Amino acid sequence: MSNGNISRRANIFPFPPYLNYYEIIKKKEIEGKRIYNLFKMRYHYNYPEFKEEIDEEKLIEIFRNFFNIPNDFKIIVFPGTISALSTIFFTLFDTNDEVLVPEPVHPLLMISSEISQVRLKIIKTYYYNNFSIPLRDFIEPLINPRVKGFFIFNPQFFSGNVYSDEEIERIVFFSNTYKIPLIFDETFSFSTFKDVFFNSISKLRINHNYKFLVNRIVESYSGINLTFIATTIPLYVIIKRYRDVLFPVDSLLINSAYSFLTKFFNTINNVRQKIFENADYIYKTLLSKDISVIKPHAGPCLIIKLPVKDTDKFIEYMLEVFEENGSSVFLMPMTEFFIEKEKGKELLTLNFSNIEKIEVEEGMRLLKSGINNYLKEVL
């Protein structure tokens, strides 16, 4: 039964768990406490105002050229990630069909699957091996007639792990064998570190046309709600038709995104350098006998394992109790990104790709100090 005019599903909808923390951070900052937020999901970039009217094809061209997307992939622009993923899911899958996804799971994927009434079926991964995709023997038992898709973040969003050729080949093998569609989010492929090889879905040998490349670069780095989908021609027609009718993109969005990307691509080396430096500093600063850090291969995030039993309680302590000179720090507990929440109890994640050096340095100092105080005062 619904409660008044509010449906049951409205109360169980999987809103991103970091939103509750953002509300606490805002409240604390109003009270005068400085919180270094190291898990910003969007970065508001200063992009130039557009001086001419840009059509969608010109925006697509600059995106295609930068990410080297082959011409046999047609590109569609959507007003945000939720509309893009929901359209893919609605087009490919029926109600209660299942999509295989390695954990930890991105909250935008949880939301899109809920809207589309598609079930996420988890491929279990583990901290001790950098959340690598398991061997075929562990994946095959998960496949049944209701499994209609694979969704892969590469680089992996939370850990910054770039999947090896062998890992990707395991997914491609099952996709080719059972004709299961592939959806790859490759937003942060531009940020792979210098000694890491990245293998895009657009280059893989897939023997069917059911493949999608998703890229949220504009949304992630500017706050502009625009997402790119690249797919093969048979699927392009119906996807674009849904986009045109349900999620039209206005000229202001197109022009704003073009202005942003023009500046962003021109300064991409500086952006990459900041990502590399932040990741290296965090890794070297935190790694110790008590704190374990997965060394990322790319942006945007990395994962830290703390010597505490419950990172939700630790972060609550950092926001409500701990402070030095009126300041504290926020990182995101990982419990909500696993089906088995216990797997995330000792883990935190932070987004190092869109924070400034001073935030990194102060954030790490406050985190180490907070851990020491927490272990003394609470445990």
UniProtKB/TrEMBL annotation:
Keyword Transferase in record: yes
Organism this protein belongs to: candidate division WOR-3 bacterium
Keyword Transferase set for record: yes
All residue ranges annotated as the Aminotransferase class I/classII large domain in the record: 59-196
Listed transmembrane segments: none
Record protein name field: Aminotransferase class I/II-fold pyridoxal phosphate-dependent enzyme
GO BP: any one term: amino acid metabolic process
Domain of life: Bacteria
SUPFAM superfamilies: PLP-dependent transferases
Entry keywords, A to Z: Aminotransferase, Pyridoxal phosphate, Transferase
Family matches, as Pfam families: Aminotran_1_2
GO molecular function: pyridoxal phosphate binding; transaminase activity
